[in-house]
Amino acid sequence: MGNRVRYVIKDREQSPQAESFRTLCARIQSAEFRGGKVQSVLFASASEGDGGTMTAVNAAAALAYAGNKVVLVDCDLRNPIVCEGFGLENIGLTNLIQGEVLMKDILQESWVPNLRVVTSGPLPVGPITALSNEKTRALFDYLRTVADYIVLTSSPLIFKRDYVVSDACVLASKVDSVVLVIDSKTVTPKAAQKAAELLKGAKANILGTVINDVVGYE
Q: How far apart are the first and last CA of the chain?
């Protein structure tokens, strides 16, 4: 899968890709965290182009099709594409942080039943500062009261093979679990290992790893 939202599974779709996301959905639903179910899941790409956002969008859709109330939050404050993929107005997370809107006002309905979306909002000067803001944590706490599952995206952990970005590590401490996403065609062992080490260093509860492009699907 590429790094753009080009494909979103449809309800009852019969395809290898849809079945893969249903399997991922089942894995999330059966997972536990601190004696309870996993409710918030961050999808973090190891590097650019690994398909983290695509995977997050489809995991959220699969959970929603299964009858769960789901909120998808675009926390990629460097290259957000969820707004574009769903054709939504980009009033979201950063607008909340700047005090321009209320929490309930940034939840937008998508064309997927049971799936609401929080877009990134206008890009801030400092993504780390925005993601560390107390209003971001308060938003996640609020979403736990209105959704069965919260699915988050983030910027890749590694840019241009060696430039580390800490966005996903900041978010890892605010969610129940993290899924690491890598691309089988472009990933290097060094990058995959570095990404895993960064998440472990952030004390992330790593639920598992999704490997994209195994059969050349894009």
A: 4
